[in-house]
Specification:
With 338 residues, this protein is an alpha/beta fold. It has 2 domains: 160 residues, Isopropylmalate Dehydrogenase; 154 residues, Isopropylmalate Dehydrogenase (3-Layer(aba) Sandwich), CATH 3.40.718.10. 49% of the residues lie in helices and 17% in strands. The chain is built from 12 helices and 11 strands. An 11-stranded mixed sheet has the order 3-2-1-4-11-10-5-6-9-7-8, sandwiched between helices. Helix 3 crosses helix 5, helix 4 runs parallel beside helix 5 and helix 6 packs antiparallel against helix 12. It is an enzyme of class 2 (transferase).
């Protein structure tokens, strides 16, 4: 039996024009995964190739679309036949093992939580994604789902992040760092200090506090923080990357001699772009749910959305949610009695 992933075909800034080509390209390379494209059937079928009937792709009609700026509560109450909601419903009904959407993040979070519920022992989902580092990659959470977190929730995030890294085969017994404004034991808020006590008592491979520059140094395999701090750090990183790209472009085109230098540097520049290409890391997971729900960047292209589908398939194949549920019992009780 092949793995089935439900795909919100209408989500994101570009909708079916990006999602459908990405889905077709993915199934051509991965014969063990079947995709269900959920959305306006006529719009989706108009973009399918002539040989679509021979591919592992189905189309499931949904009559509504959640707008990118729509209030999550409004979408949850009023759009029960949206492409996002129906895709998640397919997971709840057991017709798909994972879901991908590039749509409204708040609506996706609220709908997934309402329809699928949380894993026992987890209070809130956390957004996690891989980031490139000097040593490879690190997984950071929460990146914006929870602007305020308790120490216990930060401890849950630490467990979920560590299990994710192990389940995906990235590293055994991954190291976990708690983001803080210094490495000394006295630094940070009461909540952060209490969270450090809980994580240290959990049995996880706890490195201790890490600072902002440790994220891209790759000091730990997992970095834990609340969603407010995580989202600010992520958006700051994206803005810095865009600025560096723009400055390089301006400096290399300033004089004829520099343009020649740019030609000579093309191999290195292409390698740099490939290593830091955000599309290669697209696909943030909403951890804490009983099935993988992957949020793609809304403005990504075909390459980026293909990566988000691959992330959903990888997490479903590795049974990440089930493994998180199993490992919570190992780590959390001893941690919460510390």
């Amino acid at each position: 039996m092949s793995l089935v992933v439900a795909v919100d075909a209408m989500g994101g800034d570009h909708g079916p024009s990006v999602v459908v080509p990405a889905a077709i390209g993915f199934v051509r390379k991965h014969g063990d995964v079947r995709l269900i494209l959920v959305g306006d059937e006529a719009a989706v079928r108009a973009l399918l190739p002539a040989d679509a009937a021979t591919l592992a792709v189905d189309v499931h009609h949904a009559s509504q679309v959640v707008d990118m700026d729509e209030a999550p509560a409004k979408a949850l109450r009023g759009k029960k036949d949206s492409s996002m909601r129906v895709a998640i419903d397919l997971v709840a009904a057991g017709q798909a093992q994972a879901c991908v959407s590039a749509g409204n993040t708040g609506a996706l979070m609220a709908t997934a939580r309402f329809v699928l519920h949380m894993l026992p022992g987890i209070e809130r989902p956390a957004i996690v994604r891989a980031l490139p580092t000097q040593r490879g990659e690190t997984y950071m959470l929460d990146l914006g789902a929870n602007t305020e977190c308790s120490a216990e929730q930060l401890c849950e995030f630490a467990v979920m992040g560590a299990v994710l890294v192990e389940a995906l085969g990235k590293r055994q017994n991954p190291s976990v760092g708690l983001l803080n404004i210094g490495s000394e034991a006295t630094k940070g808020t009461d909540t952060v200090q209490r969270a450090a006590e809980l994580i240290r008592a959990s049995g996880l491979n706890f490195h201790g506090y890490v600072e902002g520059d440790d994220i891209y140094a790759g000091t730990t395999d997992v970095v834990v923080c609340d969603g407010f701090v995580g989202n600010v750090a992520l958006k700051t990183s994206e803005g810095l990357a865009r600025m560096i790209t723009q400055v390089l472009r301006e400096e290399f085109s300033r004089t004829p001699l520099r343009r020649l230098g740019a030609l000579a540097s093309l191999p290195a520049l292409r390698a740099l772009r490939q290593r830091l290409d955000p599309r290669a890391y697209n696909g943030a997971s909403l951890l804490g749910l009983p099935a993988p729900v992957i949020k793609s960047h809304g403005g990504t292209d075909v390459i980026g959305f293909t990566q988000a589908i691959a992330e959903a398939a990888a997490q479903a194949r590795a049974r990440v949610p089930q493994r998180i549920g199993e490992r919570l019992a190992d780590f959390l009780p001893q941690a919460l009695t510390a």
